[in-house]
Amino acid sequence: MTQNDKSSDPRPLWQWSATEIATATHRGALSASEVVEAALDRLDAVNPDLNAVVEVCVDAARAEAKALDASDAPKGPLHGVPVTIKINVDQKGHATSNGVAAFKDVIAPDDAPVVANLRAAGAVIIGRTNTPEFSFRADTDNPLFGRTHNPWGRHVSAGGSSGGAGASVMAGIGALAHGNDIGGSLRFPASANGAVTVKPGLGRVPAWNPSQTRERGLLAQSMSVQGVIARTADDLHLSMPTLIAADIRDPLHVPFPWTGTAPETPIKVAVSKNDFGFGLHQDVSLAIDRAASALTNAGYVVEEIEPPLVRETGEIGYRSLLGEVKTLLGPDIQEHGSDILQGIFDDYHKVFPPFEGTELVSMLGQRSRYARAWAEFMETYSLVLSPFLLQPFFAPARDTEGVEGVTEVLGQAHWSFVMSYLGLPAGNIPTHVAQLPYGPVPIGVQIAGQRWREDLIVDAMQAIEREIPPMCTTLWAQVMSECCT
């Protein structure tokens, strides 16, 4: 029997990767309907406890799968792969609530580009995933749908703002989960749940919500990106070429192929454990060492060296973003945000005082200075391996506990903000599970890459996974064994 035939693989279909599913559906060993039914069954089994998917698309998913099975058209690269969409992006006929009760009736007139691209590739949307209010927290909870829980346990946050996406994909609800990232919203939940992701760089994935009534600020346009959270690096190589397909509705999209020119080998990787004075937890240090060792064994040249202006770039970047957000989004948060969100927003400003007025305009101009310094550095070091967070992932609602809580959640996230502000691609991959007194916590590390070279980041993550198995195997075997058999 051939590899990935259902009859020869003892695993339930919900455990199959997107790559395995697509291979089987292309060969005719599996139908799209079989895969979708397995995903919907899994959703029914675990989502009531997790609250990751807040809108289930049962009838539409079954109809789409049936249409795929009946079609004689060429099969797309994601034929029959079940996916979820985050509720802050337009999906025709569905509410783009963004976790805000006041927006629960904002019905999308059409699909956003990322949704259209996934459909065109043959993916089947099975549901929409939770996000915090306005997608502006690193934890996922809101008055409209409630809290999303982490499949590793309720001792650790599911992350945010794509927390529903991270929890759902690691629990087996769909093989891919759409998310987006402006300051870390793909990478926070990937790290929290033990998933893999790559935050695309500036202009890579076309973006626009047909339901929107005004344009976003320039900094948001240049920092916010669309992507997916997956369980394996292979699935990123499968899915990301689909996401970057051009869409005329995004005039700033960069029509650059997924795979760039073959780099000179061996590829040099800079490793930094800079903790910016916060302290680096021993389990995070170990996770970096494990990633560095795997890359070395794969033939990469790994050197400990400090990239330029790291702390300054992160702080200036986040304070600039908060300045723009305070000006453009602040009134909406004051009018429609919960008391909890407004309190967190105020505490953000105490930790990272937002630039305003002339100072904000001046600081925005400095972005090119930082980007130039990093471009020169990455001419030699194509990849940069670093922590993502300096401590193991935080507890649910930690950011509601005043300045100290916000500092733990965002104050230690400089490595995230650096890549967001510069518009550089950055991946997150788990390499270790910290066995802490309150429970197991996966530890993700960050791998940043040259502009428009997401492919090199995913190559490196594949090399790491050849030594360190995907974290879903540990999760399903050790934590979710009762519901996964």
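(ticket continues) Second input and output from the same batch:
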Amino acid sequence: MRDLQHIKSIQAFEAAARHLSFPAAAKELFVTPAAVGQQVRLLESVLGFKLFQRQQHGSHRLSLTPEAERALPEIQLGFRALAAGMAQLRAAAQSTHLTISASQVVTSKWLLPILEAFADRYPDIDIRLEVTDKLVDLAVGQADVAIRCGGGNWPGLTAEHLFDESMIVVCAPSLSVDIKEPADLLQFTLLHDSNAYSGPVFPDWEAWFGAQGLKLDPNHKGFKINAPLALIDATIMGQGIALVRHQLVKADLAAGRLHRVCSDIQHPVSWGYYLVWSSAADNRPSTKLFRSWLLETVRAK
């Protein structure tokens, strides 16, 4: 095993021997040709003989010495064995790790409250949350699965429908006593979700009032918040009336932190929530367990 202290030199030699070129080997290894040459000379110094013969003419300026030519197949066999071993280690890691991607508001208001049950059922799975409002690239392994809202069509990915969504009007309990009908909302400060989300467009207050046959004055008192989680928090604190996604405030409604007003008005949207994954993650044990558990949990509610 002592020879493995020179693994970088052996790797440089193998690449240069395969290409018969220091520049080509350097390109493969993401180093400079001079660095490849330095590693090869180091290995030659350790061994006490030359590995390459330098030619003055011909398509390849390098050729292997007889000693190097005899040893090369065994060295290449060793690198293939190392690659196979690393593949097994990665497979083992993937079977016990699970990276889930979701937006901040979906993570905080929906995923985290139920995720503890999954962790309790499968304590050997190392759960990692990638909390971001950007769409991570599942095809290159930035996450194993993602929870997204949209129409269910993401090219190259498999999507399993979780549930639909609708927009509802909510406020702090202290404000709800003065609201009997939609027109009463015009007396209050309106909170606007201005989040520049890369998925579906959420209905705004103008569309909501228009559906009720009312017109919202463009100068009506209100303010915009570009983070849905902060919008919900501001509503809980009584700073105004909000038009929010129903699925994300169910816990706040149940706990009495928010109160739904104009509850007879449904404002459905044309998209829903989906569990999404790539073909690369399709057969990983941890991914399959999470998919099965999540669908079971959603359908049980």
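Agent notes: The two ends are 57 Å apart (CA to CA). The chain has three domains: 2-93, 95-162+272-300, 163-269. Closing as not reproducible unless the customer responds.
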